[in-house]
Amino acid sequence: MTQQKLFKIQSVDFELISSTFINVCVSLIKYCNLKLIILFALALASCTNNKSIESNDCKVKYFEASRLRNQFDNSDSLRKALNIADQYGKHCPDYNKRFIDLKITLLILLKEYDRGVLLIDSLNPDSFQNSYTHLMYLNSFKARSSFARKDSIAGIKYLKEIESKIQIDIKKNGFKTETFFDLFATQAYYKSKEFIHKEIDDYAVIYPSEKEQLELIKNSINDIIEQQNLE
């Protein structure tokens, strides 16, 4: 259900409640007294306030989980963050996507790659922004799982599938900073720094107006490769 549809439904429900409240108040005025009207109004306000508290709770829990996520070296904190995301993600429509993104990061940090595969597999590919993003996340988890089992052949196969999918998107949509970052970040797991730098320089010739962006991507990829060497 889209956010826009959700808002429409919430609006209709509120109008229905308001209409019911007015009708009941009219009936109470006719047949009862002011005390009953006040009690009914308080009951309705309580329902509305609970709804607001629940929505605010989603926000609070999301930022709590995000704060715990930033404690990269503390597995207990990461697991607490994952538990929050599991508990609240399904029941917080406005924060659902953010909780999913958070879970993806947490599962990578916790090296729970097989669970990551199950998570991505359960999501609709069309719900992702780019045509390649679902496959990128899915195969990234599969590749990490393969590398963890010392099966580099399978791992590289999954990464090449991501690269091919991204290349198709580039041919169709041209330059997008996010897409080119995803391309070279994928290559960083199985290609040399020299190869990637040459690729970036070649694209700088094709897209001269994006040379500055490509240089920034190059610096980011260097950081990824350096981190890879430390692991």
Brief rundown of the structure:
The protein has 231 residues and is mostly helical.
**Tally of strands:** 0
Instruction: Give the ordered list of helices and strands.
Output: HHHHHHHHHH
Helix content: over 70%
How far from one another are the termini?
40 Å
Q: Average pLDDT value? A: 82
Query: Helices and strands: which structural class?
Result: mainly alpha
Q: How can the largest sheet be summarized?
A: none
Count the DSSP helices: 10
Kindly report the oligomeric state of this protein.
single chain
Name the beta content range.
under 5%
Query: Could you tell me the radius of gyration in angstroms?
Result: 25 Å
Identify the overall geometry.
globular
Low-confidence stretches: 1-53
